[in-house]
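user: Please review this fold.
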Amino acid sequence: MKRILLLAIVCALLCVSVSAWSQKVNEPAGNPEWAKPYKPFRIAGNLYYVGTYDLASYLIVTNKGNILINTGLSSSAGLIKKNIETLGFKFSDIKILLTNQAHYDHLGAMAAIKKQTGAQFYVDAADAEVCKAGGANDYEMGHLGMSFQPVIPDKLLKDKDVIRLGNTRLTLLHHPGHTEGSCSFLLDVADGKRLYKVLIANIPSIITDKPFSKIPAYPRIREDYAYTLQAMQELQFELWVAAHASQFQLHSKRKEGDAYNPSVFTDRKGYDKLLEDISGALKNHP
């Protein structure tokens, strides 16, 4: 009996220890605009913006439930829920969760929203281990101690995989560099008789000051950046948005309360200029 009691106590202590570890995350405050509320709006067709002022979250509404891309910081779960409900949709109708990249500013609330909704989390396979570890093993953010609540993927994806839900299809585009499993999404959205091809881009900004040769955890980083920049330059689409509102100049294109106008998100020139600037930075990076 004493042995059984001792084993029970040890198991209880281990559970508490594991629980405490899983809750211990280091989420820097970062840009104050990352947590600033922003009024949700319809981008085009069945695609909606439900994120914060700068951290973009996207809701794709289908006839069989909805898809949520990115969740911002851990503090943003309630804000995203409120934004979705403000648009007239049910938070509980989220069936699939996706992300552009495995960093705390895009996955902070993912574990919480997954638990609250019961949705399935799909991720680019190259970011799966970082998701499971809460960012602790990320080549740059892990080194800096930046982390998020670990989240276990339900499905691993690779380049050109198609994500299907109801009447909607998204194609995952593997765009590594920023993280090993960074990705963009390409989809068609219908707006009456008009069909728009929309890119939800992960802009491959360079986040490390270290020479690439000094990053043993990611030996292919330079090659991945070069591949991604070339692949993104060749993409064809009509509208584009990104993981950060500032990257696609949301607030200069649209003011809160503006009428529905998908055409403001064309801006191929802005997209090409952004990639050109990053290509220059890559050439000059040691």
Summary: The two ends are 64 Å apart (CA to CA). Residues 1-23 have pLDDT under 50 and may be disordered. The first strand starts at residue 41 and ends at 44.
